[in-house]
Amino acid sequence: MLLDGVAVSDPDDPIASLRRAAERRSEKREQVDDIGLETLRTVADAYRDVETLLDRYEERITDRDDLEGYIEFRERLTEVLEALDADIRHSEAFVDANDALTTGVTSTLSTSDVDRARAALDPVRNDASLLDAWQSARDDYRSARHEAERHEAELRDRVEELERVRELGAADLDAPTQDIRVPIESYNDAVTDAFNRFLRDASARDVLEFLETATAYPLVELPAPPAPLRDYLHTASVGTEPVSVLVEYAEYSRSKLDHYVSDPQSFQAAVGPHTRLLATLSADPLTVEWPPKPASELRWRMRELVAAVGRFADEETVALARAVRALTERDDYDRLRDAAVAREVLTDEQRARLKRGAVEEELEAKRAAAEDVAACLDEHPPLDE
């Protein structure tokens, strides 16, 4: 759908956002590299293990009446600390924290002891925070890059729309489009009448056989007949009734249906699930849209329509289908079609913008903006996981 000069939504400068995110990621990356990523991860994991124990046991280890809680805490803390390498970064911080959490003869801790332990862990807490900040910077970079990609795609779409508006603006709006419209409308009217008569007068069996035949013409796009329905109508006596009668029968109760078909259960099983398909059959897939498709597309479709329509319509209707196909051989078909599309698609606002050069101006601006975003994306490639 073409837009009436509506500007593409402009997020908060995606280029600047990506560059800021890249700068922050680079800064955090340097800080991480100075220490070593694996070293940081080891320290951060150890810190989180100790901090988790403190959060979980703080109330119990400061409760004078909960000696069991203190003992349990000490056992788990000892397991964590003994699992650490002796040369772990900031090993003294873990030692100091452990000292603060070790009781004397009272076998109890105070909140100030816990606070001292947490203060002792400040160096490793800072390392863990750095690791979190680095990961956050990476996530922000990914998000900023994704937003830039989305914005570039939006700009490219707008460029395509504006190019199409400009192309349509070059169409000859005074061209005699009725030269192709009248034959198309004549065919559409004739094939609609012919198909409606076919649905009204032909047996449901014949209609299903036609739909089966039409599957050989994919450009016609008629619904394929369900095999259970087709097989049932091929042998059941009710298959000689028109489609409209089957649709009516499908609404009957089984007791009422018993008066009209020999086997109500089989009828309901075969026809019931496909009542909507039968009730909505129409000539629409057999008609030609306006404005019509480009010559090559319409030519191939009309070849199939001539063959399909010939299965149920009179020769006059088939001749009208051939006449539409012949339109695609006209030297001026593309010019007439472009004029028809322009009249149908271009709004008054778009025509006014074309006339005053606003479309060309926006096209140049959006194309340049898309190239700028693309260049920024090239400068800042995706992260290697």
TrEMBL record:
Alphabetized InterPro entries for the sequence:
DUF7118
> Which residue spans adopt a coiled-coil conformation according to this UniProt entry?
141-168
What keywords would UniProt list here? Coiled coil
Q: Which domain of life is it from?
A: Archaea
Does Coiled coil show up as a keyword for this record? yes
Pfam families in UniProt: DUF7118
Q: What is this protein called?
A: Uncharacterized protein
Organism of origin is Haloferax elongans ATCC BAA-1513
